[in-house]
Amino acid sequence: MRINNIKSLIERFLNDYCIEVRDDETDDYVELMMDNHKCVDYNGHLYYLPEDLSLDESDQLLEEMIINTLLYGS
């Protein structure tokens, strides 16, 4: 698989399922989001990834790859 295909898959997943972290978020909002989201870092942008997604098999595999490689702070 070509690297551009992988990038496209990751970007699609982030756009479809995640919320980009904004600079102006309050501490309370961040704490609320972190209760049921993971935070991933892709290309210098942080995204909240919900922990309770209902995904098909291919998106589940992509989610696992994103968590294992892009988890913020790991």
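(the above was protein one; protein two follows)
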Amino acid sequence: MQHVLTISEELYQKLQISAQENGFSSIEKLLEDWQKRERALNHRQLLVQRIVALRTRIQNASNVFPDSVALLREDRAR
């Protein structure tokens, strides 16, 4: 299904120039590429958020262990 979108002549010219500069044969191809890149960016951002959350969980879990310095001092004092 095709849809018609009305945009200003100025915007159309800018999109056409951008398409040509980026090696696309049409504005439609430029927009398809933009949408693909946007999805990829959103996916990467989600992955980064998950990595940060995992790193935080690991750091919090690592802090559960007692400090061994006091135990070592007690051991040496005997």
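Reviewer note on protein two: The chain has a mean pLDDT of 91.
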